[in-house]
Amino acid sequence: MALGLVYSNDYLKHDPGEHPERRERYLAILSRLMDEQDLWADHVAIAPRPATHDELRYCHAEKVLETVQQASLEATLYDQIALDSDTIICGESELTARLAAGGACAAVDAVVRREADHAFVACRPPGHHATPGRSMGFCLYNNVAIAARYAQQTYPEQIRRVLIVDFDVHHGNGTQDIFYEDPTVFYYSLHQYPWYPGTGGANERGIRAGEGTTLNIPLQAHTPAASYLRHFRVGMEQIARSFAPDLVLISAGFDAHETDPLGSLLLTDDSYRTMAHELKEMARTTAAGRVVSCLEGGYNLTTLGGSVLAHLQGLAD
Question: What does the pLDDT look like over 103-152, one tens digit per residue?
């Protein structure tokens, strides 16, 4: 099974300063993957490219693009600009965020064209909190959402329905908002609740044509890993009864790990390996095995690389 990896030292250029989403996250991941000699020797390197204006507009209003661009321009003079208390921009942030979204699109290309069996995008900044009208929660552009729309627009004969699975400890409010009325994109999230950003209740199921294609599983703090996995499987079984995806995208946040400082869930590396394997098996049934995974959260630099490695091992099993 050929693993596609999207990575670039350009992802280090986004510098929010003393911040949980710091550049060392990327270095910790790449260092751990390079230490795994067989994986590193056999991977397919996928170069990111900047998302185009039109691709960003698949999911975001013009004012979002203008705000990020203007803030990046101003930050060249003042080092950093705060869009909100969590979301900090430097002079290179806008281009780096385009590379994150464009890297996700490049991974879709590689998987659909069978240049790789599955792909992981080691990008930053993350994306799943970015809404149609606002960048927030460390996120500038919504990488996974843009990749979903890109896949549908670029490969309409092969990719009609997309499943997005989000196991970040925080609810992906931006991704949910983007597809809340869309029956062709199913958004499935397991997350700590109540927790930032305060969305993701079980009653949030989509509206109008999209009713029933949003599934939230809110979990209490300190939910054991075994219980989490039972909930995960119940949700997957529910989805399988009503939705057959042509592509599976993963918002791969690793801040539900038991050691993470920004969450209070209790997942382990084995949990991430198991979920990845089961998602890959589901993708084989309807999506020709097509899986693209994009980095979201995960803030313990000691454990993050091992969690990502376990996730990739699960996809390869």
Answer: 999 999 999 999 999 999 999 999 999 999 999 999 999 999 999 999 99
Distance, in Å, from the CA atom of 260 to the CA atom of 306, rounded to the nearest integer, reads 13
Residues 148 and 58 sit within 8 Å (Cβ to Cβ): no
Q: b/e string for 179-189 if b means 16 or more Cβ within 10 A?
A: bbebebbbbbb
Catalytic residue numbers read 129
User: How far apart (Å, rounded) are the C-alpha atoms in residues 311 and 280?
Assistant: 11
**How many angstroms separate the most distant Cα atoms in the chain?**
54
Tens-place pLDDT, residues 220-249: 999 999 999 999 999 999 999 999 999 999
Task: Give the domain range for residue 128.
Answer: 3-316
For position 302, which CATH number holds? Answer: 3.40.800.20
Q: Which amino acid is at 36?
A: E
* Domain tally, the chain: 1
